[in-house]
Amino acid sequence: MNETTGAVRKSVWSRAKEMAEQAPPERNRYVDFLRALSILAVVVGHWLVAAPYMKDGAVEGGHLLGILPWTQWLTWGFQVMPLFFLVGGFSNGMSWAATLRKGGSYDSWYSGRLQRLINPVLPLFLIWTIVALFGTMLGIERGVVAMAAQLALIPVWFLAVYLMVAAVVPLTWRAWKRWGFASFWMFVAAAVAIDVVSLRFDVPHVNFLNFAFVWLAIHQLGFAWSEGRLAPGRALPWGFGGLLALGLLVGLGPYPVAMIGVPGSGLSNSMPPTLALLALGIAQSGFALALEPVGRRMLENLRLWTAVVLVNGMIMTIYLWHLTAFVLVMIAAWLLGGIGLGVAPGSAAWWLTRPIWFALYIVTLFPLIMAFARHERASGSGRSVPHWRLIVGLLLICAGLGATAAISIASPEGVTGVRLWLVALPFVGAAVAQFGPVHRLAGPDR
Questions:
Q1: Does the global pTM surpass 0.85?
Q2: Rounded to whole angstroms, how far apart are CA atoms 194 and 272?
Q3: 3-state helix, strand, coil in the chain (%, to 5)
Q4: What is the Rg, in whole angstroms, of the alpha carbon atoms belonging to the chain?
Q5: CA–CA separation, 59 vs 335, rounded Å?
Q6: C-beta of residue 185 within 8 angstroms of C-beta of residue 50
Q7: Phi (first) and psi of residue 55, to 5 degrees
Q8: Where are the domains of the chain?
Q9: Cβ(84)–Cβ(318) under 8 Å?
């Protein structure tokens, strides 16, 4: 093996270590740590709450939170999407402020972010379209195909929301610069109003507006963090205040304990987000930022910092493909006669076998990461695309991602068994938004 070949085949860890060593000293490593932690917590949570089992020769889709109600309290720790929006606010605020200082354009700035977020999704859509198509052609029951595809593609809902939040950064940043924390409380007030109108007066569908108001509120706290307005001493009261509000909302209000949806529950705190989830986000943000000095000292350890760099380099791939790995393991267990699926979810034996199942999920996920992680390695460039094309492309992408999470790409009718119009939306949207001359983005990419 010559030196060139050896260099190309350097271990993933070695490449991550090189990147870790080259990180500028002024970089806030804690931001990257929270990003990695939030996504990994979501992955572990999904792998834990999904509890399929065999019953009368068929696989039943059990849900741990419904089987063991006490586990719903665990979602206060595992539902950490608020931390991702907090980190997003920090990163977007830093990057947009740098773009403004250097005279960069919104077109290039947002186009670059859109590219980095949508490119990893397209292979996932393509692969599951092929799986659904051939599964239908091979005569697999359409309900089974639809269930597998919908489960594997659940993660895409988050990207639809995050892309919308990032798209309005110039407006929310301007609001932050002008009104400071009042801009945060404005979104909180809007979220309160929406929940009152929805829960007290039973107005249908209006609660979906809280996909915007709840996550924009947490995103504003990220702006505050980026400007040093939520220093550790100031952040701790936010943590306790958010926790107190959450306790009151759950204990005295109509909100369930679980911070994610539970089958059979009349109200979900996450789909769409409620005031309870906003309170959890405030609590998590406060406690996380109060621990920032400890975290930054901890990340001075090169090995730990290298691990954080490694995870961040493939973070979207891990998030997008972790449920595909889960589905593949379940299919393999079913084909092997239901091996391991005869254990009752929530039993002592079920808990004792979780490490084995998690090891199988990780082993299955690893080659998927190796195959698809390259799609999230963007060059840091954006395309100069007219505003109207960015908006149209964004709407098409988000419509496709949202509908996929809601109804699945698999169709119970038709020859193909696939909702091809739905699959086409993200691809067409990406094409509309990304065709154009390439320009270098102004500002750092956080």
A1: yes
A2: 11
A3: 70, 5, 25
A4: 22
A5: 11
A6: no
A7: -145, 120
A8: 27-440
A9: no
